[in-house]
Amino acid sequence: MEDKQLASEIVKFIGGKENIRAVGHCSTRLRLTLNDEAKVEKEEIENLEGVKGQFFTSGQYQIILGTGLVDRIYNIVVGSQDAVNTNLKEDIYANMSWPRKISRILGDVFIPVIPVLVATGLFSGLINCINAFGIPMDANVLAIATVLMKTAFTFLPVLIAWSAMKQFGGSPVIGIVLGLMLVSPQLPNPNDVIKGLVDPIIFSPFGFDIQIVGYQGSVLPALVVAIIAAKTEKFLRRKVPDALDLIITPFVTLLISGLLGLFIVGPICHVIELGVLNAAKAFMQLPFGLGGLIIGGTQQAIVVTGVHHIFLALETNLLADTGFNPFNAMITGGIMAQATAAFTVGLKTKNKKKRGLYMSSSLPAFLGITEPAIFGVNLKFGKPFLFALCGGASAGLIAGILKAASTGMGVAAIPGLVTYLYSSQAIVHYFIIHGVAIIVTFCLTYIFYKAEE
């Protein structure tokens, strides 16, 4: 009954169901696009029990409810007799600029893949931890451990192609087959080609040499090929008679997109991917930790804009290429800094209800989810958010100087510890980075922020 009451109050204060154009949710926030944003009673919603914050961004009205509760409220809002449009993605895309649309597409493609990459990173961290402490491992046990550590990144194009096909309205199984084509064992591994262990397959149409290799661990070729395949399949579904659809559509889709992937899209995208990756590496390796300072000080501000998903491709490439993720080390302090700022604001707040709300908003941030802390507390008061960015910049600077790196992605702050267990030095780096973030942010917020400023 409490959930139903909260859902009813939210609907009432946003102007009723007739004001809802579309509704959706993420892990912590109810997301709505509205016909008339002026009808929203922000203060009333802010004061509802269970609401941790609210804000407008990118044409959306977002209400922070937290994990679990957001699912229940969403189900109540869309589950009543009055029909509510749940195709939020299409409604949002229609009003997005191209940079935001590209970032959002990357996020929609990568987010379903992140859990297995996180799990693989945790496996890698645990196995490397065992090796770091000199614990002997049987050869068979090591072989199984390698399977757990390497499979997701070896067959990364399969995961990307599957997710992209699903995102763009194609058949996911065709995406899986395309991804498997890109990593087929008949194709020489690009790492072996670079090392001179094997030769690439060479075709010479019209006098031009085209080198064909596998794309193990690559992202961009699989993404672009899957988009082409999805568009091709949808076109064929409209044109091919139903009696022939089952045979012709998959065959032509795989033939066109597969050949394009191996001969044209793959080689071009691989060169672009390597260029972007090398440029990112060079930036992160700037002297005196400057790359870490910039990344650590801006990443959480980029989260506010909603275009932070674009970094998922970079992190995935770094892990697939080197096995380590220095980008994670540069941003994890910024996440902890946002948590610290929200906690400190709560500590200085005299009103018991607000104090509890602000402190509870910091808990998800300590676990890696900063939106409740950012939008519910830090941005609301302004200075704490800026102080947290300073803390993140300081932590990123230290991460750059130390050349710290994680063995995973998608997991940071406290849970990220396990991805730094591969050596005693990495563990020390982890605690130094977070310690700097906490101390700098706490001191700035405690000294310069006035309660309810």
UniProtKB/TrEMBL annotation:
Q: Which PROSITE patterns match?
A: PTS_EIIB_TYPE_1, PTS_EIIB_TYPE_1_CYS, PTS_EIIC_TYPE_1
**Annotated ranges, domain PTS EIIB type-1:** 4-87
**GO BP terms in the entry:** phosphoenolpyruvate-dependent sugar phosphotransferase system; trehalose transport
List the Pfam families. PTS_EIIB, PTS_EIIC
Q: Which GO cellular component terms, listed alphabetically, does the Swiss-Prot or TrEMBL entry include?
A: plasma membrane
Membrane topology term: Multi-pass membrane protein
Transmembrane segment boundaries = 109-135, 141-162, 169-187, 212-231, 243-265, 327-345, 357-379, 385-406, 427-449
Asked if the Swiss-Prot or TrEMBL record annotates the protein with the keyword Transport, the reply is yes
The primary location reported for this protein is membrane
Q: Which InterPro entries match?
A: Glu_permease_IIB (IPR036878), PTrfase_EIIB_Cys (IPR018113), PTS_EIIC (IPR003352), PTS_EIIC_1 (IPR013013), PTS_IIB_1 (IPR001996), PTS_Sugar-Specific_Components (IPR050558)
Catalytic residues, chain numbering:
C26
Which PANTHER family does the record associate with it? NEGATIVE REGULATOR OF SACY ACTIVITY, PHOSPHOTRANSFERASE SYSTEM TRANSPORT PROTEIN
The protein, known as? PTS transporter subunit EIIC
- Organism of origin is Niallia circulans
